[in-house]
């Protein structure tokens, strides 16, 4: 989260080599990474699967964030999902709870954000309106639609994760 000396990512200026129209996507992903890293620094791994009030668990949100970024950016490239991506999707609901699992999941998200940023840097603005099919049904979207959705979906799940993590932590007191 921003500190008094560090404003939110979108207020720090343009990111090098990211096309201007994709700056908001990059800013949102970097902000999400910072907030998750800070909030979960001391989160106990054994509580990753807890679902207070029936909410999705912190572990689910972390795994889902990685998977959604991977899948939406794959569709934005005009590619189908791989068997590995489909297997990951099927396992998103079963977060690990072993010692070190929180750091592994946070690191996996950070790496997925890095991968997404590399793709944003390599995406020419001219292709943003191009059609892209989503899923087996090939539902219609565009490159920019997928990239903006990835950022929006990420921020939505980060908000839910932050609330759930605080609920889990408060229940431990």
Automatic annotation (TrEMBL):
- InterPro entries in the cross-refs: DinB-like, DinB/YfiT-like
Domain DinB-like: residue ranges: 29-161
Q: What Gene3D superfamilies does the record point to?
A: dinb family like domain (1.20.120.450)
Give the domain of life.
Bacteria
| One Pfam assignment | DinB_2
Q: What is this protein called?
A: DinB family protein
Species name for this entry? Answer: Hymenobacter setariae
């Amino acid at each position: 989260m921003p500190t008094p000396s560090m404003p939110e990512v979108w207020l720090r200026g343009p990111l090098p080599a990211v096309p201007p129209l994709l700056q908001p996507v990059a800013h949102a992903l970097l902000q999400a990474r910072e907030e998750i890293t800070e909030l979960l620094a001391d989160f106990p791994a054994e509580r990753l699967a807890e679902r207070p009030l029936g909410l999705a668990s912190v572990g689910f949100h972390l795994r889902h964030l990685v998977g959604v970024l991977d899948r939406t950016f794959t569709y934005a490239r005009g590619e189908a999902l791989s068997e590995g991506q489909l297997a990951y999707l099927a396992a998103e609901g079963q977060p690990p709870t072993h010692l070190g699992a929180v750091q592994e999941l946070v690191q996996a998200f950070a790496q997925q954000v890095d991968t997404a940023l590399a793709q944003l840097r390599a995406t020419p603005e001219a292709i943003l309106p191009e059609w892209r099919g989503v899923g087996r049904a090939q539902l219609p979207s565009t490159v920019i639609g997928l990239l903006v959705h990835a950022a929006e979906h990420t921020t939505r799940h980060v908000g839910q994760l932050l609330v759930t993590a605080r609920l889990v932590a408060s229940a431990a007191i």
